Recover the amino acids of this structure.
Protein backbone atom coordinates (compact mmCIF):
# COMPACT_ATOMS: atom_id res chain seq x y z
CA UNK A 1 0.00 0.00 0.00
CA UNK A 2 1.18 3.52 -0.71
CA UNK A 3 0.09 6.67 1.14
CA UNK A 4 0.24 9.97 -0.71
CA UNK A 5 1.71 13.14 0.73
CA UNK A 6 -1.84 14.36 1.42
CA UNK A 7 -2.59 11.25 3.46
CA UNK A 8 0.65 11.67 5.44
CA UNK A 9 -0.34 15.29 6.11
CA UNK A 10 -3.78 14.09 7.25
CA UNK A 11 -2.16 11.49 9.51
CA UNK A 12 0.00 14.15 11.18
CA UNK A 13 -2.93 16.57 11.49
CA UNK A 14 -5.11 13.94 13.14
CA UNK A 15 -2.32 12.82 15.47
CA UNK A 16 -1.36 16.33 16.61
CA UNK A 17 -5.00 17.41 16.95
CA UNK A 18 -5.75 14.41 19.14
CA UNK A 19 -2.70 15.02 21.34
CA UNK A 20 -3.42 18.74 21.79
CA UNK A 21 -7.21 18.57 21.98
CA UNK A 22 -7.69 20.55 18.77
CA UNK A 23 -9.64 20.08 15.56
CA UNK A 24 -7.57 18.59 12.70
CA UNK A 25 -8.36 21.71 10.66
CA UNK A 26 -6.47 23.77 13.28
CA UNK A 27 -3.21 22.00 12.37
CA UNK A 28 -0.98 22.95 9.43
CA UNK A 29 1.76 20.56 8.29
CA UNK A 30 4.73 21.04 5.94
CA UNK A 31 6.66 17.84 5.15
CA UNK A 32 10.27 18.00 4.02
CA UNK A 33 13.38 15.97 3.43
CA UNK A 34 16.95 17.16 3.96
CA UNK A 35 20.09 15.12 3.58
CA UNK A 36 21.34 15.93 7.08
CA UNK A 37 18.03 15.59 8.98
CA UNK A 38 16.04 13.09 6.89
CA UNK A 39 12.25 13.27 6.80
CA UNK A 40 10.75 15.94 9.03
CA UNK A 41 7.61 18.01 9.35
CA UNK A 42 7.03 21.49 10.63
CA UNK A 43 3.67 21.71 12.36
CA UNK A 44 1.81 24.91 13.24
CA UNK A 45 -0.90 25.01 15.91
CA UNK A 46 -2.28 27.95 17.84
CA UNK A 47 0.32 30.31 16.36
CA UNK A 48 3.28 28.15 17.39
CA UNK A 49 5.43 25.78 15.39
CA UNK A 50 7.21 22.57 16.25
CA UNK A 51 9.35 20.13 14.32
CA UNK A 52 8.64 16.43 14.07
CA UNK A 53 11.29 13.86 13.18
CA UNK A 54 10.81 10.68 11.17
CA UNK A 55 9.83 8.58 14.19
CA UNK A 56 7.01 11.05 14.95
CA UNK A 57 5.84 10.80 11.33
CA UNK A 58 5.90 7.01 11.55
CA UNK A 59 3.82 7.08 14.74
CA UNK A 60 1.23 9.30 13.05
CA UNK A 61 1.13 6.96 10.04
CA UNK A 62 0.66 3.89 12.26
CA UNK A 63 -2.26 5.51 14.06
CA UNK A 64 -3.75 6.70 10.76
CA UNK A 65 -3.54 3.23 9.24
CA UNK A 66 -5.39 1.80 12.25
CA UNK A 67 -8.08 4.49 12.47
CA UNK A 68 -8.73 4.98 8.75
CA UNK A 69 -8.02 1.53 7.29
CA UNK A 70 -8.51 -0.67 10.38
CA UNK A 71 -5.06 -2.11 9.67
CA UNK A 72 -2.49 -2.82 12.37
CA UNK A 73 0.88 -1.76 10.96
CA UNK A 74 4.24 -1.80 12.72
CA UNK A 75 7.01 0.77 12.30
CA UNK A 76 9.24 -1.73 10.49
CA UNK A 77 6.61 -1.89 7.74
CA UNK A 78 6.64 1.85 7.02
CA UNK A 79 9.12 3.29 4.52
CA UNK A 80 9.12 6.97 3.65
CA UNK A 81 10.27 7.67 0.09
CA UNK A 82 10.48 10.55 -2.33
CA UNK A 83 8.50 9.95 -5.51
CA UNK A 84 10.39 12.00 -8.11
CA UNK A 85 7.66 11.54 -10.73
CA UNK A 86 5.06 13.20 -8.54
CA UNK A 87 7.55 15.34 -6.60
CA UNK A 88 6.18 14.32 -3.22
CA UNK A 89 6.98 12.34 -0.11
CA UNK A 90 5.07 9.07 0.12
CA UNK A 91 4.83 6.24 2.62
CA UNK A 92 5.09 2.67 1.43
CA UNK A 93 3.43 0.18 3.77
CA UNK A 94 5.06 -3.23 3.35
CA UNK A 95 3.17 -6.46 4.05
CA UNK A 96 5.87 -8.12 6.22
Amino acid sequence: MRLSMDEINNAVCLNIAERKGLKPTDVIVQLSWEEDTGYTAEVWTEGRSQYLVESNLNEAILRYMFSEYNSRVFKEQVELVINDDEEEIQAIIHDN
